[in-house]
Write a structure and sequence with these properties.
- The complex is a heterodimer of chains A (about 210) and B (about 425).
- Chain A is built from seven helices and six strands; from the N terminus they run αααββαβαβαβαβ.
- Chain A is α+β, with helices and mostly antiparallel strands and about 210 residues long.
- In chain A, the strands form two sheets. Chain A has a four-stranded mixed beta sheet with strand order 3-6-4-5.
- In chain A, helix 6 links the parallel strand 4 and strand 5.
- The longest helix of chain A is centred in the C-terminal third of the chain and has 21 residues.
- Chain B has six helices and 29 strands.
- In chain B, helix 4 crosses helix 6.
- The two termini of chain B are about 25 Å apart.
- In chain B, a hairpin with a 5-residue loop joins strand 21 and strand 22.
- Chain B is elongated and about 75 Å long.
- Helices cover about 15% and strands about 35% of the residues of chain B.
- Classes of the chains: A alpha+beta (about 210), B alpha+beta (about 425).
- The interface between A and B is medium-sized, with 27 and 39 residues.
Chain lengths: ~210, ~425
């Protein structure tokens, strides 16, 4: 797996580990992508199933990520309650806010597990009104390079629209698309394509400055 | 004119024996067949032989080699240019000798002391000089400007014989590693375009002096118009977080691009009126509408749209009226078509279409919607027409990495244009020399 150098600095390790080891997308409903991702995908296919708590990621994942998260955790307010079976009071805000969501081939509709991921972000966005985020849409390598830039933007806009519809101020969410230009995984396999069809989330303000580049 | 080429065989003895008869014959022929010029003539589908005499002087071999290759790449003439055994004639051209070698014409290039080239095309059948012209060859020998001028000679030779100017004096813009590059039509002078840097989806203004492209930054992608000589850049105002896929109308007066957020629409703005609000052309309602390409008369635009839930090529009037589906659903199993490019003669739209899970280059006729597929090997995308409306540059993965290739849509022959690091998003320039 080739890791894009464009991932926000502070999240590079946590974000990629998260992507690779935990929330790799599940089996694609799209007919063209039948192969399940080989990684231990734990994201629930349907919302109600208990999801692995994101808070376990820094501890189990990388020490560096844990350090960064702790620093931020001091400044970011937590959230209470549970979303999609996820206990937010034990969740690391940064990990939740930067958790990626994934899409079907040539689609920009939000899957149910993507909505659950956004619901979790919503709680932290509500409890941290100073936070502003940037959503970056990405596509797999198939299809027209130019069309994919537009498709990536539709994916970013879909996440933004979902959060705005739930009450987050539009001005707090910037959107950008990188099309197929910044793949997480440069292999040409169904699994790699599934990883690359994603929205990445970056804290650009209000996150103690550690999320900006 | 098939006649001339055929007559070499039949009248060979006559040719060798009595030149006068041949001349008479040539004149008679010209009088009989409508549209035929006196001297060398051409019928589409035939490839008259042209004998390239050796060129004396510094870089004479280079001149001959460049012209020979240009004529081969043009696919309209058969080049006869032996590496050895060729004799530089000291006196008159021995026409029957070249007729025996299958030549309809003999090309003589004489480099002058002032750096120019005196070029003469001899009509073998008529046994006389058909055309003579002096060409300036600017700059140091073998420099890009000098090579472009030599390409210009080849293009004029093609016009002398076929009536259609060649396309050797052109360049192709492309994207390599996220940056904008250029390469001459024959594969020489491959280099980054100075002063541009990051760019995607380049397009040429028809005057060859300005280009446009999308520039992707961490905070968004915008369309930029860039003047090649001065390096002056203008970011096109859109108010949207994303704009991409610029295109100029063939008359150079209009500029089209896609812009939007949750879905993109097409917009047009007069070239130069960059402060004006662009006019919206499509109503995509959240779908992607991108990759505009103008018809030669500028009145129609073909573009990619996802409005049907899958990607197809649509047509619309340039003012947004009369949108209609161009690529029919009956094309292939997996519906995904993109990258439209309207041919300069107006007859076809080239595009990429998914066949058996891979993208291939095809054209669709605007007259009867007949589709012709041109590629099968690897993934082939993003066609761009040469100004002759006959050749296309496209991206192919057939060698294992994405590279630019050139396709002759009449013969189906291909040649590899770029080598080395991956290349994509080729955009073929207009003719870059205004030779009279």
């Amino acid at each position: 797996m080739t890791i894009s150098r464009t991932i926000p600095l502070t999240f590079a390790i946590a974000g990629v580990l998260t992507a690779c080891s935990r929330v790799t997308p599940t089996t694609e409903p799209a007919p063209s992508t039948p192969a399940p991702v080989a990684a231990p995908a734990a994201t629930p296919a349907a919302a109600p199933a208990p999801a692995p708590a994101p808070s376990s990621a820094p501890a189990a994942g990388a020490p560096a990520a844990g350090t960064a998260s702790t620093a931020v955790g001091d400044r970011l307010a937590g959230a209470t309650g549970s979303v999609g079976g996820r206990d937010l009071s034990t969740s690391d805000p940064r990990a939740v806010l930067t958790e990626m969501i994934f899409f079907d081939y040539d689609q920009s509709e939000l899957r149910s597990e993507a909505r659950a991921t956004l619901d979790a972000k919503l709680a932290f966005l509500q409890s941290n009104p100073s936070i502003r985020i940037r959503v970056a849409g990405h596509t797999d390598e198939r299809g027209s390079d130019e069309y994919n830039i537009a498709l990536g933007m539709r994916r970013a806009a879909a996440a933004k629209r979902y959060l705005v519809d739930l009450g987050i101020a539009e001005s707090r969410i910037a959107v950008v698309s990188f099309g197929e230009e910044r793949a997480l995984n440069t292999e040409s396999t169904e699994a790699a394509w599934a990883q690359n069809r994603r929205d990445e989330f970056e804290i650009v303000a209000g996150g103690a400055g550690t999320g900006t580049k | 004119m098939r006649g001339i080429v055929r007559r070499f065989g039949a009248n060979l003895v006559t040719l060798l024996g009595v030149t006068l008869l041949v001349m008479t014959d040539g004149s008679t022929l010209a009088a009989q067949e409508p549209g035929v010029r006196i001297g060398l003539t051409y019928t589409p589908g035939t490839q008259p032989g042209i004998y390239l005499l050796p060129v004396r002087g510094a870089e004479g071999d280079s001149v001959r080699r460049i012209i020979a290759r240009d004529l081969e790449f043009g696919h309209r003439l058969t080049v006869i240019a032996p590496d050895s055994g060729a004799v530089v004639p000291t006196g008159r051209i021995n026409h029957p000798l070249y007729a025996r070698l299958g030549a309809a014409g003999v090309l003589q290039v004489v480099l002058q002391a002032d750096g120019s080239a005196l070029v003469t095309l001899h009509d073998v059948v008529a046994a006389q000089a058909q055309e003579t012209r002096r060409f300036a060859l600017p700059g140091p020998r073998l420099s890009p400007a000098w090579r472009l001028a030599v390409h210009g000679i080849a293009d004029v030779i093609e016009e002398w014989v076929t009536g259609t100017r060649g396309v050797a004096a052109t360049r192709v813009l492309f994207v390599r590693g996220g940056a904008l590059w250029q390469i001459d039509s024959d594969g020489a002078n491959e280099q980054p375009v100075p002063g541009v840097g990051a760019a995607l989806g380049p397009a040429w203004h028809p005057d060859g002096r300005s280009i446009a492209f999308a520039r992707m930054r961490d905070d968004g992608t915008s369309v930029v118009v860039h003047e090649l000589a001065s390096g002056v850049e203008r970011r096109v105002r859109t108010g949207a977080p994303l704009s991409l896929s610029p295109a100029f109308s063939p008359d150079g007066k209009w500029f089209a691009f896609a812009a939007g957020e949750s879905g993109t629409d097409l917009y047009v703005v007069p070239v130069g009126a960059w402060e004006e609000s662009p006019l919206r052309v499509t109503v995509g309602r959240g779908s992607t509408n991108a990759q505009p390409t103008f018809a030669p008369d500028g009145r129609r635009i073909a573009f990619t749209t996802s409005r049907l839930g899958r990607n197809e090529i649509y047509l619309t009037d340039a003012d947004g009226a009369n949108p209609e589906l161009l690529t029919s659903t009956a094309l292939t199993d997996a519906p995904y078509r993109a990258d439209p490019a309207w041919s300069p003669d107006g007859r076809f739209v080239a595009f990429s279409t998914q066949i058996d899970g891979r993208f291939q280059i095809a054209t669709i006729s605007l007259r009867d919607r007949a589709v012709r597929q041109y590629t099968t090997e690897g993934i082939n995308e993003d066609p761009s027409w040469a100004p002759d409306g006959r050749h296309l540059v496209f991206t192919s993965s057939r060698t294992g990495t994405r590279q630019l290739w050139v396709l002759d849509t009449e013969s189906g022959r291909v040649r590899q244009l770029t080598r080395g690091a991956p290349a994509r998003m080729g955009a073929w320039s207009p003719r870059l020399l205004s030779v009279p």
